[in-house]
UniProtKB/TrEMBL annotation:
Keywords: Hydrolase. It comes from the Eukaryota. One of its GO terms (molecular function) is hydrolase activity. Belongs to the isochorismatase family. This is Isochorismatase-like domain-containing protein. Residues 2-188 form the Isochorismatase-like domain. InterPro entries: Isochorismatase-like_dom (IPR000868), Isochorismatase-like_hydrls (IPR050272), Isochorismatase-like_sf (IPR036380). PANTHER family: ISOCHORISMATASE-LIKE DOMAIN-CONTAINING PROTEIN, PEROXYUREIDOACRYLATE/UREIDOACRYLATE AMIDOHYDROLASE-RELATED.
Length: 202
């Protein structure tokens, strides 16, 4: 009944040379976000927890986005970020999906539900609990969290497996917003809870 959704673990954010790497580097380093996320992914695989990867991609030219966008989509379009076929849109190597894992199709906006098949994938597996990790904390993760909450899922957000473009933004999101729409927690607390549950039911 639980799925872990890994949002936008792509080179643009995670890897030196990525267009948004300079913006996320500080938070990733301070929280150990990439190392924690990789460990969580391996844990989920080992325990048979449903893993869903949710990349964002645009066709060359970013014609999916309005001609004169504003806000974060303007930055993505102007910087030609996450362009299909470019190395920046490829998965971060340690977080690449393996055979049998689910990859969300159609994400070209902020919320992981809008324009995608994520809801279908979750409902097909009778998922009730959704764990969210990824980028950006106060953008795509937050948009997905709010939508998942309104759809009736129990949502968990991971302080140590998410990253914003600054520590103040990262901390403010969890301090002021995330508790209204999710259970803010850490990957350590999640893994411990799963192991306790296993011990109780075995």
């Amino acid at each position: 009944e639980t799925a872990c959704v890994f949002i936008e673990y792509q080179n643009e954010f995670t890897t030196e040379g990525g267009k948004l790497y300079p913006a996320t580097k500080e938070v990733m380093e301070k929280t150990g976000m990439l190392e924690n996320s990789t460990k969580l992914l391996e844990f989920c695989r080992g325990k048979g927890i449903c893993v869903i990867h949710c990349p964002i991609n645009f066709e060359p030219g970013h014609n999916e986005i309005a001609e004169k966008p504003y806000g974060i989509l303007a930055g993505i379009k102007d910087g030609s970020a996450f362009e299909r076929g470019d190395s920046g849109s490829e998965f971060y190597e340690p977080m690449k999906p393996i055979e049998g894992e689910l990859v969300v199709k159609g994400k070209s906006g902020l919320c992981s539900f809008a324009s995608t098949n994520l809801d279908f994938l979750l409902r097909q597996r009778n998922v009730k609990n959704v764990i969210l990790a990824g980028f950006l904390t106060n953008c795509c993760v937050e948009s997905t969290m709010r939508n998942a909450y309104e759809k009736g899922f129990k949502v968990f957000t991971l302080k140590d497996c998410t990253a914003a473009t600054s520590m103040p933004a990262q901390e403010a999101a969890f301090e002021h917003n995330f508790g209204m729409f999710s259970v803010p927690t850490t990957s350590k607390e999640i893994t411990e809870a799963v192991e306790i549950m296993e011990a109780v039911t075995s």
